[in-house]
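Repro:
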Amino acid sequence: MTTPTDPSHSAEHSPFYAHLARLRYIKRWGLMRNAEEEDVAQHSWEVAVLAHALAVISRDVFQQPVDPNAVAARALFHDATEAITGDLPTPVKYSPAMRHATANLEGEVCREMVSLLPVALQPSLTAVMDHETWPAHEAALVKTADRLAAWLKCQAELRFGNPEFAQAEQQIRRKLDEHMTPELRYFLDTFAPAFALTLDSLMQGE
């Protein structure tokens, strides 16, 4: 039987994780025709996997002091605030007027969401949600993974015969090239080509 002082007993209900569960209903690329729709929950998982991969490459190939598990956790929560704000399309998010208007929005929503948690859990979730507290190298890995996921999405749409993503693919690839890192180069050379293969080709190891 629990008592009021038992730390395993929570007297208050929290909607924090219920908010996160709704990321599956928030569609990305909302201003564009998609051959295959993508939601924020799916995107977050993909960015977490890619960020973990880049971090492992950084640690094991280039001998950098980085924790892949910490990077993956931060990547998993990198768009968590969109549970409240929704996904702002890139042309809107980065227009001069909107950039000024939304400059502090993400931080404010992050603090609001963390406040929904029991007090004992708030420091741990702040560490993975608040971008401003991330170590610089980990933040860079997550940003690279985010761009990489977007580029792979554009590539997939083009393979589906959807020219709507042609300009976005070129723009994102230029960003990747401008911010090329050893980890990204290694991933693009080693793993990216297989994303264009069919299932039969993947199974045959081609």
